[in-house]
Amino acid sequence: MIAAETFAEYARANVPRYTSYPTAPHFKPDFCEATYRRWLGALEPKQPISLYLHIPFCRQMCWYCGCNMKLAKRREPVADYVANLLLEIDLIADAMPARMKVGGLHFGGGTPTVLAPGQFDAIMAGLRKRFIFAAEMEAAIECDPRTLDEKVVKSIGAHGFTRVSFGVQEFDAAVQAAINRIQPPEMVERAVNQFRGAGVANVNFDLIYGLPYQTVATIKRTIMHCIAMRPNRIALFGYAHVPWFAKNQRKIPENSLPSTKERAAMAAEAARLLVAAGYTAIGIDHFALADDSLTVAAKTEKLRRNFQGYTTDPAETLIGLGATSIGRTPFGYVQNIGETGAWSRAIQSGRLPVARGHETTRDDRLRARVIEQIMCFGKADLEKTGRALGYPPNWYADAVPALRSLVADGVLTCVSGKLSITADGSALTRIVASAFDRYLETENAKHSVAV
Predict the structure, then answer these.
(1) Of all residues in the chain, what percent are helix, strand and coil, respectively (each to 5)?
(2) Residues 6+ apart with CB under 8 A from 93
(3) Phi and psi for 239 in degrees, rounded to 5?
């Protein structure tokens, strides 16, 4: 059993979410575009890749949001963005050794469904022209039910998308007013039914705990609404209050935010209700129905973690397209320019719009593998993983002091290099992962709290 004071101290710690290792603050701003071109040219032609397309536009501003987004007040900027995105698709495809097969496709934002059907059709045509879509490809898209157009729904269904994700966050009216996102349950249910009617069978909900004026009671009611709609997956994230980074969050009063203890109680109650309703807990913050591919991947230890969170996608290469998008190759990470004007100018000049990157070292790859195991399964065989990459049994000596403290506090067990997080320590998984992060103490970036 972890002492309450000890748990609270860990829970207040600021640590990364570990959707990559190294994490984005360690990507280098002097990264050379020619290096990324070399990486793309060296990809194995027979290995499927995945694509992520970032659409940064939204019709309305949500005050909790920490994403790179722009308000779509006029049609022209969106049309210009689409035109440049099509050019970027060509630039990326030209740099590759062959017409690559795509096993996973994800549209994120922002709000991808702000695109007009014709714009969406043009992007899909551009992708199909330059890439081969695998027959079993998972195609997912994020959606805002407040601004949903039925023609867009039909277009998404016609293009064979298999999954749609809704940012539900919280259904309580007072909380919605405080975050400037008004969407009653009936609105979300209508959107879910529209997509299912269009053939998009798999539905994801994103929920957030730790929002202003939120309580255990409000999130309990929200969970019950969600259960009634029976989404296939639910992601339950802790709100990251970073007003120094996301200026819109300054509209949220600091004194309206729940305490660390209240946040932990919300997360625990939400998880309890979801599991009781037949959802399987996946990793640190996902829940899925028993027949969902995410649940199957977790049980067979094929679960992966990337910039979209937990995934079944096995691809080693994820190509990011669009402003601020992040990509991964077997050789390292890249991130595009975030400002849409500069991103557009780079593309129009024939350059890949790279802002920064990181070429992974042998040590990076070992630690990335261990951190992913911890984040996905709550355990890792440190010596076996190291041995597979040619490392001696004591390769993790620098992490031993932190691991000993975590063992003493009841967060994990570690015997003969086999690490396993306890049931009480599951909420502190990111803390455990951080013990293997050699960059954490050298960075100036601020991260969200652990719980």
Answers:
(1) 45, 20, 35
(2) 99, 100, 130, 131
(3) -65, 130
Task: Sort strands 202-209 and 233-238 into parallel, antiparallel or unpaired.
Answer: parallel
CA–CA separation, 52 and 325 (whole Å): 8
Q: Give the SS3 label for residue 247.
A: helix
CA distance 415 to 71: 52
Rounded to the nearest 10 degrees, what angle do helices 260-276 and 216-229 cross at? 30
Model pTM greater than 0.85?
yes
Residue type, 2: I
Distance, C-alpha 325 to centroid of its chain: 12
Residue that has been written with the tokens 């609404």 in this structure = 225
Strands 286-289 and 412-415: unpaired
Identify residue 211 by its one-letter amino acid code.
L
For strands 304-306 and 309-311, give the pairing: antiparallel
pLDDT in tens, 383-424: 999 999 999 999 999 999 999 999 999 999 999 999 999 999
Q: Using one digit for the tens of pLDDT, what is the confidence trace for 236-279?
A: 999 988 888 888 999 999 999 999 999 999 999 999 999 999 99
Only one residue has tokens 């994230």, namely 237
SS3 labels along 152-175: HHHHHHHCCCCEEEEEEECCCHHH
Residue-wise pLDDT tens digits, 286-334: 999 999 999 999 999 999 999 989 999 999 999 999 999 999 999 999 9
CA 217 vs. chain centroid, Å, equals 27
> Measuring CA to CA, which residue among 375, 361, 369 is closest to residue 388?
369
Question: Domains (ranges, CATH) in the chain?
Answer: 23-359 (3.80.30.20), 362-442 (1.10.10.920)
